[in-house]
Design a protein that fits this description.
The complex is a heterotrimer of chains A (504), B (318) and C (316).
Chain A lengths: L1 E10 L2 E11 L4 E5 L6 H8 L7 E6 L2 E3 L4 H6 L2 E4 L11 H5 L4 H4 E2 L2 E2 L1 H14 L15 H14 L4 E5 L7 H16 L3 E5 L3 H7 L2 E6 L2 E7 L6 H9 L15 E14 L3 E10 L2 E5 L6 H9 L6 E6 L2 E2 L5 H6 L3 E4 L3 H5 L6 H6 L3 H4 L8 H15 L15 H14 L4 E5 L7 H16 L4 E6 L2 H7 L2 E6 L2 E6 L10 H12 L1
Parallel strand pairs in A: 3-10, 3-11, 6-9, 9-10, 15-20, 15-21, 18-19, 19-20
Antiparallel strand pairs in A: 1-2, 1-4, 4-5, 7-8, 11-12, 13-14, 13-16, 16-17, 21-22
Helix pairs in contact in A: 5-6, 15-16, 16-17
Chain B lengths: L9 H7 L1 H16 L6 H27 L6 H14 L5 H26 L3 H20 L4 E2 L5 H6 L1 E2 L2 E2 H19 L1 H11 L1 H6 L4 H27 L1 E2 L7 H11 L11 H20 L4 H21 L8
Antiparallel strand pairs in B: 1-4, 2-3
Chain C lengths: L2 H7 L1 H16 L6 H26 L7 H18 L1 H25 L4 H19 L4 E2 L4 H7 L1 E2 L2 E2 H19 L1 H11 L1 H6 L4 H27 L1 E2 L7 H11 L11 H20 L6 H25 L8
Antiparallel strand pairs in C: 1-4, 2-3
Classes of the chains: A alpha/beta (504), B mainly alpha (318), C mainly alpha (316).
Chain lengths: 504, 318, 316
């Protein structure tokens, strides 16, 4: 049993956790819910030893514990499966799985590989992963790597296991298998702490749900049959939000094919991809993490060199050797899924981040960049996207996730592209900003007549916004759904069933 | 970037501009110990020493803001100095042009190698440094070779209004480069690339071109410094520029420019370098043994790095 | 193993043999026993430094101060020997632990780039060496001369020390927990961090090992030559790094081995000896070293890039 009593944690300028008390019982699946910034990840890191609480206490089975670092938590049998895929690619499966407990296999500093491999095989069987302990991890799929990560936590024989968004890269059947494993852990009395933002899944497997908001615990509820998604959302956001709002009808110019891709292939990433994109359309790319959609987008942009295929922009064959060509010649923009590493210059201010795309337009003959036009455009974007900031001189690093994403999108709006590829725009964005960003994407197609490719692994989001959805699986398009948002309302259930079929 | 927030964060402001605090502190303290420090003559000496290597600091500042580094700047300086000495018999102007040409080319090679190979600039410029130093030693046969054309010295000794021409040149370069950095497309591209190379690439900035260009400009500046060194001392030797890389890097960092790039200004680098030279001058005045001086410069670098690592500027939690 | 595979996996060894043969062909004196012996002798002292450095590089760091530390250890060792031979042995090693620990501390505690930090400490120790002993000092005879003169099978003892050290480090790198952790750390510091590997301890330990190797090298050098210069280590960091890179250690970390570095050291010395025998002026050595570093770096980068060009999310 794990008890958290009056846990507080403060960072410079931010109260991440205030007086949070939760009890996790043996043999229960206890889910933590909350928007980003609500304190969920901070709480997990307090349990895992990565952070030390400023106030409050942690008790394991009644005894007071204090973890000075994550190593100590591991030694106390707390397993933590991180959200990011964390494996060491250069090493073998066995090395990855016994990583936390090397000393159990080492005598006087030397490692007993026979023992390690046998040990590893046990856990590989448990997660139903068909690889050999001696295989090198580097060449494995994202899903396999994730399962290795999970096996590693299981191998600790932990009494407390924390899973942070474990199903993000798993297929339905792999996720089902994971739930079975969780069920078995429950039976053996393990404390299972689950973190997910997929409300359907949360309602499916949780025994109890604790919701955090703005660093405080809103409440812990029993998951009985009366709990609905909207209840959870209300708890998370603090106000009623209409989920899956009907956006209206998209006016797609069916006879204006803005982009046509034929037979695009990049070995080990995607194969034989063909699609058409029309003006005024939102085309969705649905697939799990690792299904090749981002790589496809980047190949279209010229980041990676394709092995085969051709692309036509406005009817003419296009050659895109470099990102700059994509932007300047063909007016294709890309809102990256990884805003911190690819989309934003974190130490720079809003003016620099948004202005960067307009420099070449407003630069004078002397290559001088006049302040006023740049600032005007930036202010315009800030207003248009309702970015919460103290001014265009504020450092982007200090903005919340949602606002950062808005800045990332703002610069592409300022760039005046005709075609936009938007990649996972609402990952790590709180529910309120999420609605706003959906509206931005919608308006891009509806009001500004741009062509948008929306890459997302959030089914409700795609169904809400897209006109057509291409379903990706392991690098291929396995199906397409047409006729959404075109005048006839379809239910979420109908559409997701079709998608599920394609992925089965 | 010096951002002006609505509410001024005082701690941040002082941290960003700490170089001014350091300089004032240095001057006050040293003056108290030895009043000969702040005299017209000594200040002139400080600026004389400053003006040549200071040009290299301008280039290094741009490089560090870009997120790169160049250990071979001293070597480029040495090569240029060497070329101008050896080509003196052919006339002053050809000698100067050739030196600057070669130095700029060296800078370009650095840039091309770094960009094309994809290897970090640190080990690459370590290699080019050895290469170029080696060339100088070979050509000079490890001797100090004096120049033959005495009129070359006039280049450095010309005075306008009692102040050396070289000082004017240096100040002019500082002003020009600062202007370009802060106001022009090229300069702002440097900041953007230094801030996040990928993001800059995605918005269509010519990242590779900017990088190569900055290395080339640094080569240019180092070669001008080399020519001025030749003009002032009229000697070519493999030892010239030995300490330059270390001194200039320390100067830029002390001025408050972060090694991770994306922010800074030439002014800060200037004051950082002023600090280092003043410190060395002070140590000479106070009769410190020269080896102690080296130790202190090295230790200073480490201390500055440590302070940087601990300051608020490092946003650890977002 | 098929020949092509063999060449691929043992590239460095093959190159060494090829280089040796080329030199032997160009300069007949090369195959002389004396030449080979000379190579081994020179390699012994600078080679120990190189293998120590390679441990650091595998961990993802760099230590530019090895040259200055070498100078310092030389003069310290000599001065101590004047008091007592044992002090001349112990003091440098103890000092080395301190130096290495300092480097490691600065890098880990403040999370600084090891290159810049050691650029600073390089200056500090260089000055310290000069302050401690402004001129050359000589070693009184006896104890050390005996060691440096003793030989087994015609090869001086200290050469064996070098090879022994290489084997010890090889075992440490590949068989111990510390060694394996170092490789992880070099290749993917974040993953290593999360795995609970104590990166700080590994980094500090790797730097201490490096400094100790430098100290041992200095001790061997001073016993062999009979004196210590305060600037004897100038440029050593450059040579050591060249040897390390030639030995196939990746500058990015995570790849390499002590034995490979030995090959790198031999390769470098063979080339330099060849140059000397061909009457090429000493000054050209620096140029050659610089060129070799660039070549080694480019090859290494080429290999790394080939891997990165294809993200391969689906590679099964």
């Amino acid at each position: 049993m794990l008890e958290l009593k009056n846990i507080s944690k403060e960072f410079p300028g931010v109260k991440a956790l205030q007086d949070v008390s939760v009890t996790f019982h043996n043999g229960e699946v206890h889910t933590l819910l909350g928007e980003n910034g609500a304190g969920k990840s901070t709480l997990i890191k307090v349990i895992s030893g990565d952070y030390q609480p400023d106030g409050g206490e942690i008790r394991v089975d009644g005894g007071l514990v204090r973890f000075r670092n994550s190593r100590e938590a591991i030694d106390h049998n707390i397993g933590y499966v991180h959200q990011e895929v964390q494996v060491i690619p250069e090493s073998t499966v066995a090395e990855n799985i016994i990583l936390d407990q090397l000393k159990n296999f080492a005598s006087r500093g030397f490692i007993n590989w026979d023992k390690a491999n046998a040990f590893t095989q046990q856990y590989l069987d448990m997660v139903e992963l068909e690889v050999k302990p001696t295989d090198v991890v580097r060449k494995m799929t994202v899903a396999q790597k994730k399962l290795i990560q999970i096996a590693r936590a299981l191998a600790l024989d932990a009494s407390i296991i924390m899973l942070d968004e474990p199903t993000a890269s798993l297929t339905e059947s792999e996720a089902e298998n994971l739930f079975k494993i969780i069920g078995r852990l429950k039976e053996s009395g393990t404390v299972v702490i689950f973190v997910s933002h997929k409300l359907e899944e949360v309602l499916k497997i949780s025994d109890r749900i604790s919701v955090l908001r703005d660093g405080e615990l809103v409440g812990t509820i029993e998951n009985n049959n009366n709990v609905k998604k909207s209840d959870l959302v209300t708890m998370m956001v603090g106000r009623e939000i209409v989920l899956d709002k009907f956006m209206g009808f998209l006016d797609v110019k069916k006879d204006e094919v803005v982009m046509e891709v034929q037979g695009y292939t990049l070995e080990n990433n995607f194969e034989d991809i063909s699609f058409r994109l029309h003006r005024g359309e939102i085309l969705g790319f649905y697939g799990l993490v690792g299904s090749g959609r981002t790589e496809l987008a980047k190949t279209i942009l010229g980041v990676f060199r394709k092995d085969a295929g051709s692309i036509y922009i406005e009817g003419k064959e296009a050659h895109i050797p470099h990102m700059r060509t994509a932007l300047e010649k063909y007016k294709i923009g890309y809102v990256s899924e990884n805003r911190k590493e690819e989309g934003l210059i974190l130490i720079a201010d809003l003016q620099d981040n948004i202005g960067v795309t307009v420099w070449h337009r407003i630069a004078s003959k002397l290559r001088l960049i006049p302040q006023k036009p740049e600032q005007d455009i930036c202010r315009e974007m800030v207003d248009k996207l309702a970015i919460k900031t103290t001014g265009i001189r504020q450092t982007v690093n200090h903005l919340s996730g949602g606002n950062q994403q808005k800045v990332s999108m703002a610069k592409w709006l300022a760039a005046q592209c005709d075609i936009l590829i938007v990649d996972e725009p609402t990952v790590g964005v709180d529910v309120g900003a999420k609605e706003y960003i959906h509206q931005i994407v919608w308006d891009m197609a509806k009001k500004e007549n741009k062509a948008v490719i929306l890459i997302s692994s959030d089914m409700p989001e795609l169904i809400k916004l897209a006109r057509r959805i291409c379903v990706f699986r392991e690098g291929r398009i396995v199906g397409e759904i047409d006729g959404l948002n075109d005048g006839v309302e379809k239910t979420y259930a109908e559409v997701s069933a079709v998608i599920g079929q394609y992925l089965a | 970037m010096k951002g002006r927030l609505r509410q001024i964060n005082y701690r941040q402001a002082i941290s960003d501009n700490r170089i001014f605090v350091f300089i004032v502190a240095l001057f006050v303290i040293v003056q108290a110990i030895n009043p000969g420090f702040i005299t017209a003559n000594n200040v002139k000496i400080i600026f004389q020493n400053l003006s040549i290597e200071g040009m290299v600091a301008i280039g290094m500042a741009m490089l560090i803001i870009l997120g790169e580094i160049d250990l071979s700047v001293g070597a480029i300086m040495s090569v240029s100095c060497c070329v101008s000495i050896y080509l003196q018999p052919y006339g002053i102007l050809p000698a100067i042009l050739a030196s600057i040409g070669i130095g700029t080319l060296a800078g370009f090679l650095n840039g091309a190698l770094v960009v094309k190979s994809g290897v970090s600039s640190l080990p690459i410029t370590l290699g080019t440094m050895g290469l170029m130093n080696g060339i100088v030693y070979v050509v000079t046969e490890s001797q100090s070779v004096p120049g033959t054309n005495k009129s070359f010295l006039y280049v450095a000794d010309t005075m306008i209004g009692g102040i050396n021409l070289v000082i004017y040149l240096f100040i002019a370069l500082v002003v020009v480069f600062e202007f370009v950095l802060q106001k022009c497309y090229f300069g702002r591209s440097i900041m953007a690339v230094g801030g996040n190379r990928f993001a800059a690439e995605y918005v269509g900035l010519r990242v590779d071109r900017v990088r190569v260009l900055v290395f080339t400009l640094t080569g240019l500046l180092s070669s001008i410094a080399g020519v001025m060194t030749a003009a002032r001392y009229n000697i070519a030797s493999g030892h010239i520029g030995e300490q330059t890389a270390l001194a200039v890097i320390t100067a830029v960092l002390i001025g408050g420019i972060s090694l991770s790039g994306g922010e800074g200004s030439i002014t800060k680098a200037f004051f950082g370098y002023l600090f280092i030279i003043s410190l060395q001058n002070a140590m000479r005045l106070l009769k410190f043994p020269p080896d102690l001086s080296t130790i202190i410069t090295g230790a200073l670098l480490i201390v500055i790095l440590a302070i940087d690592a601990v300051t608020i500027r490092r946003n650890q939690f977002k | 193993m098929r020949p092509l595979q063999f060449i691929r996996s043992q590239t460095q060894l093959v190159i060494l043999v090829v280089v040796f043969l080329i030199c032997a062909a160009v300069v007949p004196e090369f195959l002389n026993e004396r030449t080979v012996l000379n190579i081994l002798k020179t390699v012994a002292t600078s080679g120990i430094v190189a293998i120590g450095l390679s441990v650091v590089v595998i961990g993802g760091n760099l230590d530019l101060s090895v040259g200055s530390v070498f100078s310092l250890m030389c003069v310290v060792s000599v001065k101590m020997q004047n008091t007592s031979p044992w002090l001349g042995l112990i003091v440098p090693i103890v000092l080395a632990v301190g130096v290495g620990a300092l480097n490691g501390f600065l890098v880990t505690r403040f999370r600084l780039n090891s290159i810049i930090v050691t650029l600073g400490t390089m200056s500090v120790w260089a000055g310290a060496a000069l302050l401690y002993s402004p001129t050359i000092m000589t070693v009184p005879g006896t104890f050390y001369e005996k060691i440096s003169n003793s030989a087994f099978l015609g090869i001086p003892t200290y050469v064996y020390v070098f090879f022994a050290a290489a084997i010890v480090l090889q075992v440490v790198l590949f068989k111990t927990k510390f060694g394996r952790s170092l490789f992880f750390q070099g290749v993917n510091p974040e993953a290593a961090e999360i795995a609970g590997i104590n990166k700080n301890r590994s980094t500090i330990l790797s730097m201490v090992i490096c400094s100790i190797c430098v100290a041992i090298g200095a001790i061997l050098q001073t016993s062999r030559v009979g004196s210590g210069y305060p600037i004897s280590g100038v440029g050593l960091e450059f040579s050591a790094l060249t040897a390390v890179l030639l030995g196939g250690v990746s500058i990015a970390g995570g790849k390499g081995s002590a034995l490979r570095t030995v090959i790198g050291v031999l390769m470098l010395q063979v080339i330099l000896t060849g140059m000397i025998l061909m009457d090429i002026k000493h000054d050209w050595q620096s140029i050659v070293k610089g060129a070799l570093i660039l070549v080694a770096l480019t090859l290494d980068a080429w290999q790394q890039r080939a891997a990165a060009r294809n993200p391969g999310g689906l590679a099964a």
